[in-house]
Write the structure tokens for this entry.
Amino acid sequence: MPSFKTTYRVSWVDTDAAQVVHFSNYFRIFEKAEEEMFAKLGFSFDEVRKKFDIWLPRVEAFCKFKAPARFGDTLEVNLTVQQIMDKAVRYTFEITNQKTEQVIAEGYVVIVVADKKSGHAISIPKELVKKLETYKMP
């Protein structure tokens, strides 16, 4: 299965009082990987917003935490486009501790394409679909 891969080094600000990555930060790590995937595909969130007059709200998110990550850990983030629907995209992600090779988190996010003016869901622009298919599951 094709996936976009990137790394993320855990910063002090990512951790909580127990000195592990706070659960909410896994979604930030995932969004950073998504941003880097968009850049690899040749555009940024801002360019997509301006070119197609859309925004990309998240409507569903899930993460299963399997092991803690700590300050200084380097994480590998694998992002896959699991499903491209008419008006939405579902990404899956897996986060692994690069040193131990242990999967520490996995989950998914569903993103709707919405018209900036009306706020209503619209069909995903064909050009965007074509690019996202680069990392789509078969």
Q: What stands out?
A: The CA atoms of residues 28 and 137 lie 23 Å apart.
